[in-house]
Amino acid sequence: MPANENLDAFYAHKFEETPPLPPAGAGDFNVFRLADTNGAASPAPYARYDFYKIMLIRGKHRCHYADKSIELDGSTLLFFNPAVPYRFERLDHGSTGFFCLFKDSFYLENLRKGIQDIPMFKRGDRHVYHLNESQDKEIAALFEEMLDEVRSDYRFKYDLLRNKVSELLHFTMKMEPNENIYHHPDTNARITSIFTEMLERQFPIESPEQCIEMRSASDFAKKLAVHVNHLNRAVKLTTGKTTTEHIAERITAEAIALLKHTRWNISEISYSLGFSHPSHFTYFFKKQTKVTPTSIRLV
């Protein structure tokens, strides 16, 4: 099984010093010029990374997946997602380009829906797009706008950055619409897909009286009529994360959305997310985000 690498490990490999980090609730979004990274470093290990990455790169390179390696030459737009392990090899170390990074929560916490169904981020669909000169200029301009915005003091800059990423995604989909249906290759992938759908079906929470019914691995296993160990093994093998991690991340994303976008009190939010007491919710939230619910509300 490939290793699982987090954002901290990626930054340590790519930069001499850790770059400025976004505030809590920004979905860990960041954007960089390729020239700002450590181009002389050895290729990052073949691994499953816990973030999404969009890269515009020019020159000769190679991208390795489990079942194939892709040779890149010229201007190329690439999409990487947490479900697919890979290793990217830069053959032209003086190459130019840009990349941006973000977590699921970049969309979940604010738009209340994810991006897993966008063709470029679906398992089995195309992740590599070769660009002509005109397309390169348009996409490079979007990255330049993101770089300018991430350095600004604008209060709502991450909303604007989210729009820029969406514009980039739609530009790519218009280049070559992909209507291929992904067929799950094995039982583990099928169980994971059903689990993910069941988890997402509980959200968004639209009133304080609404309360999620399933918030543990055993809850989902009962609904799926499988042993909890079977569910945990399938989800871990397919995504690289445990069932509990998926549930915790989705509940945290919804909690941040409710804290930011409603006036419900902490008790109401705690109940809607399935916690029997506000103190339990506060403990959970601090464990996941390292900050208190109140601090998110004041951002």
Q: Given the C-alpha coordinates, what overall shape results?
A: globular
Name the helicity range.
Answer: 40-55%
Q: Could you spell the SSE succession in H and E letters?
A: EHEEEEEEEEHEHHHHHHHHH
Please count the helical segments: 11
> Poorly predicted ranges (pLDDT <50, ≥5 residues)?
177-184
Give a count of the beta strands, DSSP E runs of length 2 or more: 10
* Secondary-structure class: alpha+beta
Q: Beta-sheet strand percentage?
A: 5-15%
Query: What's the story with the biggest beta sheet?
Result: 5 strands, antiparallel
- Order of strands, main sheet, comes to 2-9-4-7-10
- The averaged pLDDT comes out at 86
- How large is the radius of gyration? 20 Å
End-to-end C-alpha gap = 39 Å
Please characterize this protein's 3D structure.
By secondary structure, this protein is of the alpha+beta class. It has eleven helices and ten strands. The chain has a five-stranded antiparallel β-sheet, with helices on one face. It has a three-stranded antiparallel β-sheet with strand order 6-5-8, with no helix packed on it. Strands 1-3 form a two-stranded parallel sheet. A hairpin with a 4-residue loop joins strand 5 (61-64) and strand 6. The two termini are 39 Å apart. 29% of the residues are buried.
